[in-house]
Structures are given as C-alpha cells and as structure tokens.
C-alpha cells in the first residue's frame, strides 16, 4: 500500500502532503466484534475459501467471493485486522500508523469509499518547507520549494510515458527491460545532478527504496509517476484525501459485506494441497480445510510459511529479497513551537529520518507531525533522540511525546512500504501474480497498478477472487453457500 516518500505539493492541505511522506503500509486497527479466536468452540473450520491475511487485500477478496456465493474464513495472525494500515490515537488525536490516503486517481479504493458512502477528509495548514542547504537546512516558502522540486524531479521521469503507456498494466511499455535493471541511484547518476540539487531529491529516492537509493528499482517510482498522470502536480497530489473515521472504517465496511468468519491470533504455519483439498495449519495447531485458498499476506512473509508441494522458485526468491522495505518506521511526534512552524521537510539521503509532514494542530496550539525512518539506529520512541533530529530541521521546536510503528520489526509484516528491487518487474513479478494450483496470491506488494498503496491491495484482492472463481468453474464443489 505506498503512500511512499516523495516531495509534497505546494497546496496548504495537510493531506495533499501525504504522498510526500509516504510509506504505504496497508492495514487497519479494528478488532471487530464477533471476530473469533483460533480454536474457538462451535466454529466451522471449513469453508469454500480460506483467506490468509486480514488486510485490505484479504478482506476485499472475501467480499468478492461472497458476491459470487462462496463462503470464506479469514485467518489473521494479529489480534486486529488491517495488516499494514492501523488506525489508532495519539495525544488524543486519530492517527494512522500505516497507509492512510486515497485519491480519485486510485480507482479501486476510491470506488470502495463511494460504494459505502464513506466521506473523505482533507485539511490542515502548512507554513514552510525545510530543505537541504550546504551541511544543514534552510526554511523556504511552500511555493518557492515546490517550484524548484518540480524542476528537479521532472527530468528524473523523462521517458516514463513510454515505459508505462498504460500504467495499470506494468508490462505494456517499450524499453522496460533495460530500465528495470536500473536502481534509483543509477538514474540519479545518469542525470548527474549538481550535489546541491541531488540533495533535494535523493532523500525521496532513498526513503522509498528503504534507506539507500541503490536498493529500489527506478521503474517502481516511474510507474507511480505515470499512474499520477505524468506530471509533478499529479504526483504530489495523489494522497490529498483521507478516510472519515480512518482506514478501519472502510475496511470494516468491506468486511461486513464479505460475511466472512474471522479468526484473529491465527498465524499460519503450513499450507498443504492434496488432490482437491487444501489444508491450512496455524501455529496454534488449528486446522482449516477448503478447496481453495487466497494467500493475502505480505510478500516478505511467504518465506515463513511452509507450502506443500513447494511454490515455484520465483516466490521464494522474491520473498527472501523482499518487496516491503526493511527497517521501515512511521513515527508520530507531539511538538510545540519551532522556527519552521507547520513544515514539510525533505532531508537528504543519509539523514536519520526522511520526509516529515504536519498532521494536525491541537486546540492549545501544539502540533502532531509524523516522519519516516529506515535508519536502524532510530527507534522513534525516544523523545531525546527525536528532539535532537527535529531541532536540526526547525530550531526551537520542542518534542513532547512520540509513538512509532516499526514495520520492519513486525513479525507479521517483516517490512513496510512496497518497493520492488531492480529486475523484479521484468523478472519474477508476472509469475508471482499468478495462482499456483489451488492457491491464489493477493496483496498490494504484487498489484499491477498502485503497488504498495491501499488501492493496490483492493485491486489485488479482486484479482485473486477472479482467479479463485476460475478454479471453481473447473467443477470444484461448493462446500458452504
């Protein structure tokens, strides 16, 4: 899901800045009424489809299957649903520890909000941008900073229209094979920016990549640019809107339509196919049986599940390499004062935190802001550590409290926002999007369009449901209507 790190828009809307901030982690906070625990008495362990993973991809797949008359059991490892989105509160304010924004350019998730009549939100103020300057930082007006950012970023994406003429079909372009071998660092080097200019944009490429611009594929960011309309204005405005009531409100609406049984605290250990039956074993010893299974966990988790018979080699290779970036943290801070006011910051590659964004202003004039970090030394939970870092961006700022989610250390994510590595798109990506026997795979990591965003999770869930229905048309029995 990504909300990945990228430059923020010149508009004063806080949510217009969310793409700049980026990590598109997909998940929500709800622990739902009626959701069962593993092994609960008087619950069926058989359905038409077992769905492994209760994020947006898994819940959407279950809803689509129910529309076709198939029942589902959702097995979720955590004690909540939502995966890499997580609605919660901090300093008395609602926040999202994972992905949070939606946009009309993201047709799958936007349609879901419209379907359920869930309002979108936008708002907030912006006083300044904090940008690299020499060995430190300078405070600029949003307009001045955005104008220069547009001038610097636009050449970075020259040719992306040919690579992705239909960006929802990532294999439709010409010259893709060669460009997919490039890292974001390779592309920066090709353009040979002056050091002062590169410092304005390499924090974005490094943040999205997972700490170093050498890790992420150039085509990952180029596809996002194409999906955004191929302009800087479209690119930075992609996450203008949030969801009224948080991502959990939208997830719960989809879940209600799925009529799926939910088993929380049910990590999956093994998936075994024998004949026309798939058996799913949890780490608690619970056994679930169905003719078909949707595996809707992050790609990085595939390697933690034993599949019998084994999956094609591409699945294991990509899971070991990882699509969700390691060491990824989203950090919220309650702050007071500071020379930059309500600011967006884009520190350069190598700085311990990346894009920093204003979230809200409280009644007493204090503010909530958030940032991202892929630095293993940054915990996000130390007020003193964050004070030292933020003081470099906005002198005089006071950090009152912090909270953070370390998605890389989360054993049920093993990574944060999605970022393919060089060669993945034109190598194994098409294979890992396909079903294997009676297993379909879903998740924003493997979406064709907005990979890493909530939209990609919804898209992928729909695709997996269609793949399951194609299996069903081959004559498999329906166990539970």
From TrEMBL:
InterPro entries: Amino_oxidase, FAD/NAD-bd_sf, Flavin_amine_oxidase, Flavin_MAO, TAT_signal. FAD binds at residues 76-77, 268. Residues 56-469 form the Amine oxidase domain. Residues 1-35 form the signal peptide. Its cofactor is FAD. Substrate binds at residue 372. GO terms for molecular function: oxidoreductase activity. Coiled coil: none annotated. Keywords: Oxidoreductase, Signal. Belongs to the flavin monoamine oxidase family. This is Monoamine oxidase. It comes from Actinoplanes philippinensis.
């Amino acid at each position: 899901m990504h909300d990945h790190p990228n430059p923020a828009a010149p508009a004063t809307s806080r949510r217009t800045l969310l793409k700049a901030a980026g990590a598109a982690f997909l998940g929500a906070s709800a622990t739902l009424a009626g959701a069962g625990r593993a092994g609960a008495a008087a619950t069926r362990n058989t359905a038409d489809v077992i769905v492994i993973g209760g994020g947006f991809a898994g819940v959407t797949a279950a809803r689509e299957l129910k529309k076709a008359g198939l029942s589902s059991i959702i097995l979720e490892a955590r004690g909540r649903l939502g995966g890499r989105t997580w609605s919660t509160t901090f300093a008395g304010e609602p926040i999202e520890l994972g992905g949070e924004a939606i946009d009309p350019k993201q047709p799958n998730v936007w349609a879901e909000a419209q379907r359920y009549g869930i309002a979108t939100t936008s708002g907030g103020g912006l006083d300044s941008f904090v940008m690299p300057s020499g060995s430190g930082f300078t405070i600029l007006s949003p307009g001045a900073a955005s104008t220069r950012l547009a001038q610097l970023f636009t050449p970075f994406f020259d040719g992306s229209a040919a690579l992705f003429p239909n960006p929802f079909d990532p294999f439709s372009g010409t010259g893709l094979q060669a460009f997919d071998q490039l890292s974001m660092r390779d592309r920066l080097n090709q353009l040979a920016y002056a050091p002062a200019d590169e410092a304005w944009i390499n924090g974005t490429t490094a943040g999205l990549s997972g700490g170093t611009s050498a890790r992420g594929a150039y085509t990952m960011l180029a596809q996002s640019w194409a999906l955004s309309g191929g302009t800087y204005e479209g690119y930075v405005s992609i996450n203008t809107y949030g969801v009224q009531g948080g991502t959990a409100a939208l997830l719960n609406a989809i879940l209600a339509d799925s009529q799926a049984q939910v088993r929380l605290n049910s990590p999956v250990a093994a998936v075994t196919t024998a004949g026309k039956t798939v058996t799913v074993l949890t780490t608690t010893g619970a056994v679930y049986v169905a003719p078909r299974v949707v595996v809707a966990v992050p790609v990085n988790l595939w390697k933690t599940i034993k599949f019998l018979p084994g999956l094609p080699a591409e699945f294991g290779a990509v899971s070991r390499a990882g699509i969700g970036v390691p060491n990824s943290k989203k950090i919220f801070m309650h702050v007071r004062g500071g020379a930059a006011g309500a600011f967006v910051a884009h520190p350069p590659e190598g700085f311990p935190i990346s894009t920093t964004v204003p979230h809200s202003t409280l009644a007493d004039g204090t503010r909530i802001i958030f940032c991202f970090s892929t630095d293993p030394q940054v915990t996000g939970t130390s007020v003193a550590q964050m004070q030292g870092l933020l003081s470099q961006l906005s002198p005089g700022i006071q950090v009152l409290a912090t909270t953070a989610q370390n998605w890389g250390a989360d054993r049920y994510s093993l990574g944060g926002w999605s970022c393919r590595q060089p060669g993945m798109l034109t190598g194994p990506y098409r294979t890992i999007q396909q079903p294997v026997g009676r297993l379909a795979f879903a998740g924003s990591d493997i979406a064709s369009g907005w990979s890493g965003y909530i939209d990609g999770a919804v898209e992928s869930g729909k695709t997996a449901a269609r793949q399951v229905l194609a299996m069903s048309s081959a004559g498999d029995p329906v166990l539970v209507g």
